[in-house]
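User: Now give one protein:

AI:
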Amino acid sequence: MCPKKKPITAPNRPSRARPDAVPSAGIGVERIDVAGHALPSGDETALLDQGETLHRAFRPIMGSDYRAHISEMFAEGAGLIQLFDEGEVRALAVWRAFHTTYCGYRLEIDDLVTDETQRSKGYGATLLAFVETKARAMGCDTLTLNSGTQRTRAHAFYFRERLHIQAFHFTKDLRA
């Protein structure tokens, strides 16, 4: 369950029933620098290619056509943020925003990935702060993410960033 500190629908809040009513929803690839400042956008195909190796290291079961998979997610309203340092993608986040019955309008982070060789340089914190700022600007009620139970180092990071465990997330693989 999400926090119930305030009503999840406020009468003075603009309607967010359509994703196109939120300017930053489903925008494709965004780039930021190590300070969390937006970088000029570039060729989306080239940007996807630059981040693919890092993303696949975290999600090795993604299909063989990375660009098609991510493009399909974009069509469903997802966004991708890449953090660049020294011309390389060092961290990335995949996110989407949607309404729920239990915590209002939320921004959920599907993936928050930092290059394993580049940990402890502040990239994850910068990326998470950027995503939180985006969620607030979009009028989201909550920011959520799921993390595998085995990812204890990631959990320690999330606790340091003031996230907390709110619920269990149950799954059943339907591909088998």
Remarks:
- The chain is about 30% helix and 25% strand.
- Strands lie at 28-32, 79-85, 88-100, 104-114, 142-145.
